[in-house]
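for the writeup, i need someone to sanity check this before i put it in the appendix. the sequnce is what the collaborator sent (i think, or maybe the updated version? ugh). structure was predicted straight from it, no edits. if anything looks off just tell me and ill rerun, i have time this weekend
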Amino acid sequence: MIGFLSGRGAEIAVTAAAVIVVAVVGGLMTDVGPWYESLKFPKLRPPNWLFAPAWTVIFTLIAAAGVIAWEAAEGSDARARLVVLFAINGVLNLLWSPLFFKLRRPDWALYELALFWLSIVALIIELGRISSVAAWLISPYLAWVTFAGWLNWRVVQLNKPFGAAAVQTHASGRVGGHDRVSS
């Protein structure tokens, strides 16, 4: 065990732990209950069951990219940049779910998603300087979050307003009787 935790084993264990924390906390903040199911969605909405396996693959690729980049990074400055970029991305990844699901503010989540998306682009750029393989491993993450951004934008367009304005709109009776799936 001590041999595993020295060298590559430690890098893999730390990376896996960080990715698992982000995945588990993000999953715990995701509530596909009655409020979520009452929203109108675009026709291209994937089934709910697809999100867990998709994120599992993406998080596995993120961990692999992190380990590959860490090993290929030349010097402590490059490794420090990796840690900072992965940490910023992890925080932004974690912020989206409570904004969307817990606060029921897809509009706020959409703004946050723009920063989240940019953090993935920054990761790809930095990883590309260190290892093209690591950068390519992160690419599906960018594709998935880009698609999620489109879905988030359509949910906002199909269901606005949110927050206090939504309470007033619902109280006035102006909302109701809409299809749950739209174009």
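The chain has a mean pLDDT of 85. Residues 10-35+49-171 form a domain with the Ferritin fold (CATH 1.20.1260.100).
thx in advance!!
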